[in-house]
């Protein structure tokens, strides 16, 4: 099971929760492997070009689809080169800032950023973390500098060290630092407040455009042309793994809105996400080289 990011982030924790449960359901040992780089495209491309026999799977967030559209470079077809095994949940991002900025809400951060040369970090160029942070910077005239990382963990370490002042990241990766007072969460990217952050408003509540209702699909994918009987076995294994209350509880504790979705519905969710992302890029005009 390939994750196209470095170890240590939220997606890595989700994969390492799902992989053994799926292995147990299938009666097989599943090896978790991190193949990071090129904003998830290296790991995704590896899986897309692997033998379609069900032995190599991609556990990912939507960056694998988003980045090629931002770069306008497609080493693989995000929809056509993969077949969904299923979806394990949906994920929202949180806008987190370094406590030394002094900001306790988004308005205060905007005011502080206008008077300083702030940088924001993302877990990859072309990701939602990059595009929505840049959209915020452009909309508010902040002129923030983008610093791209190969995953959440190095981004958060640099945020703690003060090398970047903010970023859109998972709450899973920042929770202990927020509790320690080193980081502050100011807003949620998504359609609703999070159960574990009931006091934190969404960007929508703060008056930002409807594009900020974005929340991410978390699919498990196989190379296209994987035989239907193999796909059926994998899908049933994932269904049984996600039927375990302990697995759902652990994923929920890790900040994932955990719920199994069958392959056909996952495919529909991915197609809808691609359409929505194209609209985001059309409105923001953000591209990368």
From TrEMBL:
Gene3D superfamilies: Bordetella uptake gene, domain 1, Periplasmic binding protein-like II
Pfam families cross-referenced by the UniProt entry: TctC
Name recorded for this polypeptide: Tripartite-type tricarboxylate transporter, receptor component TctC
Organism: Belnapia rosea
Alphabetized UniProt keyword annotations: Receptor
Spans through the membrane: none
Family from the record: Belongs to the UPF0065 (bug) family.
CDD domains linked: PBP2_Bug_TTT (cd07012)
InterPro entries: BUG, Bug_dom1
Presence of keyword Isomerase: no
Keyword Manganese (UniProt): no
